[in-house]
């Protein structure tokens, strides 16, 4: 899905630094090693995965999370599982692959990158099936390419977004759309890293992001690791900070973007966009083209994952309503930074023009 | 500060039910027994207090919280401490009382009811000083009167507010402004209890209220105890619920209200009001007249308490900005329910008219 783009240039400019820590890796035995993000920032522990069921569990438990990284991890998981069952009959591969990839694609419903990555691996398998090459090799190459591309897309998104970051900006973000959410420097945080790289002093307000605290645990951790001054706030503090004139811009990631520019992202993004609008603060979204779902006309069609009540402690007897995402209408989004360019004032026309579809 | 009002009638109508559990009590020895709200809903434990320092600690630790209840507790704490030191020289009383009441009034800066209750006790002491009556008795009577009045004010607020609750309403609230926050049935939750009492089926969305979870811990607990269907949500879920048309009205309490109707309340109230405005949902505030601070022209003058970063877990190295309150401008408030009447479209004129000042 990557169209004409300038990411190769950005990549050569060194915008993709070494990741610290290793969010995702191949092991020597061809398995996938995932940083368990549920344990951060307290513990740096890893999961080693070579079965599809393990990858589905890791995705559902949010051990690996972030729309782009889920896509990368899914592709790598398929390759690792195919490698493990290599000794089995080649004739069994199509049936196994069909069941495994279908189950994997359904692990979480909202982020489209998961479906996108699985579909891409499927297309590769279909195309290469008659070639006689070993399927596990084909899968690994394609998974690696998805990962590499994601890293390059992050760099390009960062470059595009950094142009909108004023010198000395105070930036608010929500959830984690950084190194821990992608195969590269991140989407929303990629913009911040690229601005820093370009010599701009920035400081960040990271919203806690209830109920699972990806902001206070993950975003704060990786920004601090990169030397960016970061202040954690309860999600509810966004309003008074804006009213006090403390925020220059907002940038968030996305889990799925409809053809008209409506954005599904972590629950709390929509109220943040409403607040930004009420205070005339620019509200930006950063996402690779793999996040766009051109089959959906508007955000109303995006399925929203309801997660377990157990994620939200509450008094006995109370129900818990725990949606993982919400939809921000395009009219509240000033621009979407993608790897193929910036979509100003998102609309169906503007999206199609920049994506070249 | 109670003007011409109809609360006696409401009280006689039985709108003030027995509190369960006992949020605050006198002990047989004249001390104050406080339900420790930091332990709810898991544990029902009590603190016994007969020293001013203990009451200050309990208020600062939020063992006792809620603007009206803090006022009641402060008055009772002064009485209990005066009772304990009764054996000491009467001549020492004025110096002790001055120091103790000044320290107590400064325990928390935002809720004005604390200062109001202490000032009222001070005025009583000044008036009764020449009477020859025992000061501890005078203090206890006045503290009891503040408590009783608060219960009656809650009942009257509830009656006034219930008139605005539609049959079958789905109501959203923030923090806890109920039995656990007042000397009676509550302010915001008093409206809900009164609506229930009036035969209206209501159900409630209680926002978690970060960082200390007064919504998921306290509001959910007391509403469930009263048989009101309650759903807990992360603070960030308010936006999408409103966008989906699920919310009929919002009602919250207040910690201080300026002369023009600007409302200081728990952090997160202001963004909730902005969201309500964006979705054309009525946004109501419920508070006794003791919450109004007519010495402040606007909410900009209300001091906002910054609480410890320790309340908000965050990655090492991140700063934490933890204000306990925010200010909602009067223009976002549809009406304020008080014990002396409802202030529609709050403004300096409307406030003065209803309060009769």
Would you give an account of this structure?
- Two copies of one chain form a homodimer.
- The first copy, chain A, is α/β, with parallel strands linked by helices and 357 residues long.
- Chain A folds into two domains: 3-154, translation initiation factor eif-2b, domain 1 (Four Helix Bundle (Hemerythrin (Met), subunit A)), CATH 1.20.120; 163-355, Translation initiation factor eif-2b, domain 2 (Rossmann fold, 3-Layer(aba) Sandwich).
- Chain A has eleven helices and 15 strands.
- Chain A has helices at residues 7-12, 52-60, 67-84, 93-105, 112-128, 135-162, 188-197, 214-225, 238-243, 269-278, 348-355, and strands at 24-26, 32-35, 46-49, 170-173, 203-207, 230-233, 249-252, 256-258, 263-266, 283-286, 292-293, 319-320, 325-328, 335-338, 341-344.
- Chain A has a seven-stranded mixed beta sheet with strand order 6-5-4-7-10-14-15, sandwiched between helices. In chain A, strands 11-8-9-13 form a four-stranded mixed beta sheet, covered by helices on one side. A three-stranded antiparallel beta sheet of chain A has the order 1-2-3.
- In chain A, a hairpin with a 4-residue loop joins strand 8 and strand 9 (263-266).
- The longest helix of chain A has 28 residues, at 135-162.
- The radius of gyration of chain A is 20 Å and the shape is globular.
- Residues 1-19 of chain A have low confidence and may be disordered.
- At the A-B interface, helix 8, strand 6, helix 9, helix 10 and strand 12 of A face helix 8, strand 6, helix 9, helix 10 and strand 12 of B.
């Amino acid at each position: 899905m990557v169209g004409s783009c300038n990411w190769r240039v950005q990549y050569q400019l060194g915008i993709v630094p070494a990741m610290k820590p290793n969010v995702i890796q191949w092991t020597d035995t061809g398995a996938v090693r995932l940083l368990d993000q549920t344990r951060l920032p307290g513990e740096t522990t890893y999961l080693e995965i070579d079965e599809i069921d393990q990858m589905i569990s890791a995705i559902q438990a949010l051990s690996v999370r972030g729309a782009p990284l889920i896509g990368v991890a899914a592709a790598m998981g398929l390759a690792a599982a195919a490698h493990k069952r290599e000794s089995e009959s080649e004739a069994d591969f199509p049936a196994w692959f069909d069941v495994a990839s279908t189950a994997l694609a359904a692990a979480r419903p909202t982020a489209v990158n998961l479906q996108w990555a699985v579909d891409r691996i499927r297309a590769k398998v279909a195309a290469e099936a008659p070639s006689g090459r070993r399927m596990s090799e084909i899968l690994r190459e394609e998974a690696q390419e998805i990962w590499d591309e994601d890293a390059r897309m992050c760099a390009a998104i960062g470059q595009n977004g950094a142009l909108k970051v004023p010198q000395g900006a105070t930036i608010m973000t929500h959830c984690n759309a950084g190194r821990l959410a992608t195969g590269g420097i991140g989407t929303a945080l990629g913009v911040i890293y690229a601005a820093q790289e370009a010599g701009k002093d920035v400081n960040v307000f990271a919203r806690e992001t209830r109920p699972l605290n990806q902001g206070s645990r993950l975003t704060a951790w990786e920004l601090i690791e990169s030397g960016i001054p970061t202040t954690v706030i309860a999600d509810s503090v966004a309003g008074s900070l804006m009213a006090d004139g403390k925020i220059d811009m907002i940038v968030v990631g996305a889990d799925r973007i409809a053809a008209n520019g409506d954005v599904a992202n972590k629950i709390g993004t929509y109220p943040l966009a409403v607040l930004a609008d009420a205070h005339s603060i620019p509200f930006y979204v950063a996402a690779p083209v793999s996040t766009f779902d051109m089959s959906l006309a508007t955000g109303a069609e995006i399925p929203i994952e309801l997660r377990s009540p157990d994620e939200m402690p509450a008094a006995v007897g109370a129900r818990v309503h725990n949606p993982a995402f919400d939809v921000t209408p395009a009219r509240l989004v000033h621009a979407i930074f993608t790897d193929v360019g910036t979509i100003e004032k998102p609309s169906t026309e503007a999206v199609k023009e920049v994506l070249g579809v």
